[in-house]
Amino acid sequence: MPGSEPSNGRSEPRGVVFAASGASYVVLARRAARTLRQVMPGTPIDLFADRAFEDTTFDTVHRLEGRGRRPKMEALRRSRFDRTLYLDCDVIALADPSEIFALLDYADLAGAHEHYGSAPIAMQSVRDTSIPPSFRQINSGVLGVRKSAATDAFLARWQDDFEALKLQFDQPLLRELLWKSDLRLAVLPQEYNLMHMPYLTAGNEKMMAPRLLHLPHLHVGSKFTDDPSRPLSPAEILSDHECSTIAARFATDRTLGASRDLRVLAADMLRKAPALDRTVRGIWNRFR
């Protein structure tokens, strides 16, 4: 029953976890989970929160035990799932991201690169200043974790070091621990943790549609934390142009089942006949 801990002690194969402390973050998590439920209707969704309440959007609401500043760390450690997809409260699901679970059959952790590689936080080091910039931080707002003794120990180290060192940001430490770890890391494409919206309008019909938007400005102020019963909608957050661009990406994303247009079909046919392909391209280049 939502609002109570499972009593059988058995883990579920896979599920999604949110974590929130503070009234506004809890409301945002409830809205984000409602949006996710629209694209993942059959997947268990749990919330770790600092207060008890009833919300049937979640399969289970767990009460946070610690007082740490990053409840995601406790949520990941205590997750009841063999394969966990953790999402920050400001992540909006546009399409089912379940394929992340498939990656966890081969990797221990999955996450997307931090978009802003030369930002002050991305440039921070904790103890090791020798890590090259090419080993980019992993954004901790979307993380896939396969449960094992090794990942349990890694998550415990991440949380313990974060609290012991009294750090403000968790990603520089996560980067350092991943650099020194033997865990297998799968790096997700940006479409699974899209933060920089100009990428949308700079793309074209060959780009994948975004599955998950990560929008930190959602938890600034009270505009998006007033009504927990409403799913988060891109239309209330993004511009009309951004929304129409997302719709266009979905209309042409073949990984989501979009059909190929005539130009793509013609190009595929020509590639099967190299001599004809060269002739057609030569004619095209002469007259364009």
Question: What can you tell me about this protein's structure?
Answer:
The radius of gyration is 21 Å and the shape is globular. The longest helix has 17 residues, at 23-39. 33% of the residues are buried. The chain folds into two domains: 12-252, Alpha-Beta Complex (Spore Coat Polysaccharide Biosynthesis Protein SpsA, Chain A), CATH 3.90.550.10; 259-287, no CATH class. It is an alpha/beta fold and 288 residues long. The protein has a seven-stranded mixed β-sheet, with helices on both faces. The protein has a two-stranded antiparallel ribbon with strand order 5-9. It has helices at 23-39, 71-78, 99-103, 149-164, 171-180, 198-202, 240-252, 262-271, 274-287, and strands at 12-20, 45-49, 60-63, 81-87, 91-93, 109-113, 138-146, 185-188, 212-214. Helix 2 runs antiparallel to helix 4 (149-164). The N and C termini lie far apart (65 Å). Residues 85-193 form the Nucleotide-diphospho-sugar transferase domain. GO terms for molecular function: transferase activity. Keywords: Transferase.
